[in-house]
Structure formats: structure tokens, C-alpha cells
Amino acid sequence: MNKNTSKVLSLLLILMLAFSIAGCASTPVTEDTSMEVKEDVAVAEEPAAEVVSLETLENEYFANKPSDSYMVNEVKFVEMVKNNENMTILDIRSANDYAAGHVKGAVNAPWGTAISDILTKIPSDKPLYVYCYSGQTAGQAVNTLVVAGFEARTVHFGWNLGLSKVEGIEAVTSTEANVLTEDVTEINPVVQEALNQYYEGLSAVKDTKYKNYKISEANLKEMLDNKDDSIFLVSVRQAVDFSEGHIEGAINIPWAKGMQEGFSVLPKDKKIVVYCYTGQTAGETTAGLRLMGYDAVSLNGGMGKASNSPSGWLNKGYPVVSSLSLEVLENEYFANMPKHIYKINQVEFLDKVKANEDMTILDIRSADDYAKGHIKGAVNAPWGTAVSDILTKLPSDKPLFVHCYSGQTAGQAVNTLVIAGFDARSVNLGWNFGISKVEGYEEFVTTDESVLTEDVTEIDKGIQSALDAYYAGLSDVKETIFKNYKISEANLKQKIEEKDDSIYILSARSAEDYAKGHIEGAVNLPYGKDMASGFSDLPKDKKIVVYCYSGQTAGQATAAMRLLGYDAVSLNGGMGVGSNAPLGWTNKGYDVVQ
């Protein structure tokens, strides 16, 4: 090593030592605080977003349906625009059609992801009106906007069939674009994500027959002609209109407050095709169903009306079938109630038997009891599916008299038989308390079996299906306290004492007798011509316990309610009368209140 190299190395060592000393001097001496107890320091947390359920929001959408059905008439809407009312207008047509002319002040968000993208920019403190071409996709949009928190309405018939037909529309038409650029509304993250997926999903069906979550009239007809069982048809038209004519195979869930209660019968493994009159409320329903997890689409143009021609099933000349609506039939059952209230006195009944009158007698007691002895000529159809199975074999051109043991299940049977088209009545107090108490009844008793083997009556398919389900349902309650769609006096008493709020007690006795004494907690809806009009006030989320005097008319009411979707049962023996003791509430010595 030469001298120069040695000097350089020495200089480097000196510099390194200097830096090391400086570094140590600048490093603060810290105490070991690992064993110190530190005070908690409050850290501000972001408020958690409210947890919401799409199903809950959709249930509220239908349960709280306003009288305007989330829709505004096109003429009224134009007047609102002319009056410069404070509102937001959303045009969801294509950008090109918007540019060609739109309602003054309208903002464009073409049908698709543009709608979910614009949500935060739409003011939530003023009404929101949406229009498309025909009203159908706007119907979907309105449902999504309402669940997002907006006070949204769709403009009836959209631009093509509604707005453009309004006299003076030119005065409120503009080509000047309007935009919303600021975020002014906070959307719940769960809802935002659901709506993002909803509108993004349109791209997945864009090149299919379900484009825009719709199906054309022709495509639906082809699927029906091919008996394609991958679809499930739902008409949301009113019961009367459904009865007069509907697409074959459709079920009816009328567009109304509370219609969501009918969604539970819908399958999640089929394509649900929803239709209404022109497509608009079906659009709302379709969006609601899709957001609840159903694979739903709406029929283009709905059933079709003159005002939306040539769109719509009927406007294409496609066929419909008529049926008997349970709601209509049950309303008629009560409204047209005869003086005999679908019953016949046991003495009068045996007089008819004695006179060999032309009639059919149906004994719905067990096969064993029928075999031991029954009224001459009576046919046996034991209470259960045998009743719905025998319908086509019962003659419809003669009176039909039904009896059970006490009259109560025969009361149910009579309601089902009348709506099936028969002139049916139940024998008062049945076999045990009525027929067998008539002096000389033995003269009309036999052990000879009578049978009906031929199909002689055509039953409406919808009614047959409903009654099949009614009687098949008895097996579901066979091992419960609600066997035979009834409840015993003791079981009801226990529920009342336990303050069980799952039940709703309904007295079908007269207002006068109700006032004299009734079961605690019962409300009064007297059996009679006006009874059906009070059904809409009854809850569908409780077990309705119906009672009358002896159980027979309560049986009729129970059957009617069950067929209309209520979970109804009748109280065994009713309030109780002398002739049906020891059955009935008061015959058991149970308390009543005034």
C-alpha cells in the first residue's frame, strides 16, 4: 500500500466516525413505556350504513301501493309541466330520441346502467316522473327508484302512446339537453349494489327473447303452443277481468295493495311471465319480483287495449280462455244467499226422502259409518279428497243435499260444492244431532250402497284445481289442533288464556247476539249477504277462528275464506246451542263477555 492510498483510507475512517457520532447525538433517548397503563383514546367511527332488505322494501312497495298505482296520467303530467311544478323528469328513451325532442326540463338516462349510475344525482326532495316509449320499462324503473327512496311515478303510456298524443305537447317539447352533475342524494349501499346488478343484467338478455326483461306476444304464444313447462304465467289484472278472459294456464294475483302476499306461490325455478292490461303495472311487478329473487319478465303490451294497439296479446288476435274466479264466486255466494242459507231442516230433508224427490244425497261421514247405515240413495264420499274426486260424477241438474256428523264439515263442503256449480245445501245438525233425532228416521235408513260411476258434470279447471288443493290440504293439518280446518273449544280457550296473538277470533253471529255475549277478543262479522264485503279487513298473517251458533254457517264461512287465501278454521260446535250439546263454547261452560 502506498502513502497516498493510506491517507485516503484514514480520511474515510475519520468521516465515518464523525457521521456516526452525529447520528447518535441526534437520536432522542426514549423511555421504555411498554409497561405503562395508557388511557383509552376515543376514535371517531364512521356511522354504519343502515342494513336493509330488498325483500322488505319490495313488500313495502306493494303493501303501501298508493291509489295512483305509482302512475300519473299523461294529460295531468303535461299540465304540471306547463305550470312549472317543482319536479324532476327522467326520460329513459335512447339518447338519439331524447335529442330529437323531449319534455322541457327532462334529464336523459337511457334504459340500462345509466339509470343506476344517475341515482345519486337525482334530488330526493321533489317528485320524480319517468317516461319511456310505452310505459312498460318505465314501470320497471319506477319500482327500482321507489325502493331507492324516491317519490317516483311513471307517465302513463310513455312518449309514443301517451305524451305524444296529448294536445299541446309541442308547447312543452324541447331539444335543449338538461344534465345532473352533482351528487345530491345518498343511496343505501345495499340498494345501490342491487340496482347496479339489475341494470347490468340487461346486457345478459340483450340478444335473447327476454330483452329488456320482457317477452314478445309471438314468443310467448310459441312457448305455450309447444307446451313449454319452463314458464309460469301470472296475470295481475283484476279478478273480474281475469274471469272473463285470460291467457291459458295463467294464475291471478290482482294488482292491489298487499298483492305481495300472493308471491309465495310463485316458483323460483321457472321463468315467470307477468302481464297486466298494457304492460305498465306488469313492469312494476316484474322489477319487484326480480329484486326478490324471481326470474320474472313482462309480456310486451300486456293483454292489450285499443289505446296501445297493435301491442298486446288480444291486439295480436291471440286466444284467451275464460274461467270462474274464486273471488267473484265467493262474493256471489254471499251476495246471492238464499233464505235457506244453504241449509235444510232435518225434518224437511226426510220428508223429501219420503216423497222420493229427485235429488242427490252425499254422505261425507267415514266409510265405516256409512256402511253401518245411511239414508236411502245416499252416496258416500268420506270427508277429504273423496269430495273433490267425486265432483264430475255428481249430477248438476238436481238439488244436492250433504250431511256429515254435526253439520260443520258439511258446511265447508256446501260452500265448495256451490262454487263448483251445484245447487247444494247441508242438512241441519248432520247425522248425530239432526237426522238421527227425527222420529221415524229409521224408515229411511239402509245399508245398501249407492255409487256414482259416470262423469256427468264438467267442472271448471280452475275451480277443480282449487278444490283439489282445499281437500288435499286436510292431510297437512290432520295431526294438529286444526284437524278438519277446525279447533276444539278447549284448545281455543287455552290459546286465549295464553294470550296467543297468532289467532284472530271472528264471530259470525248476528250483531244483536254478539252484543249479548261473545268470546273475549272476538270481532263481529255477521253471516249473511254482506259478509264477503268484510273479508278485506281480515288479516292474512293470523289464524282466523270463526264461530257461529252450532258451527254450520261458520263452516261455510271458513271454506270461503280459505279459498280466498285466509288461514281460517271454525270453532267446534260454535257458541253452542241446546240441540248440539255437549258441543260448543257455552255448552262447555266457558266464559263470554259483553
From TrEMBL:
Matching Gene3D superfamilies: Rhodanese-like domain
Stored InterPro entries: GlpE_sulfurtransferase, Rhodanese-like_dom, Rhodanese-like_dom_sf
Top-level taxon of the source organism: Bacteria
Keyword list, A-Z: Signal
Signal sequence region: 1-24
Presence of keyword Cell wall biogenesis/degradation: no
Rhodanese domain span: 83-171, 227-322, 355-475, 499-587
PROSITE patterns with a match to the protein in the record: PROKAR_LIPOPROTEIN, RHODANESE_3
A Pfam family of this chain: Rhodanese
PANTHER family to which the protein is assigned, alphabetical: FAD-DEPENDENT OXIDOREDUCTASE, PYRIDINE NUCLEOTIDE-DISULPHIDE OXIDOREDUCTASE
Protein name stated in the entry: Rhodanese domain-containing protein
Taxonomic source organism: Helicovermis profundi
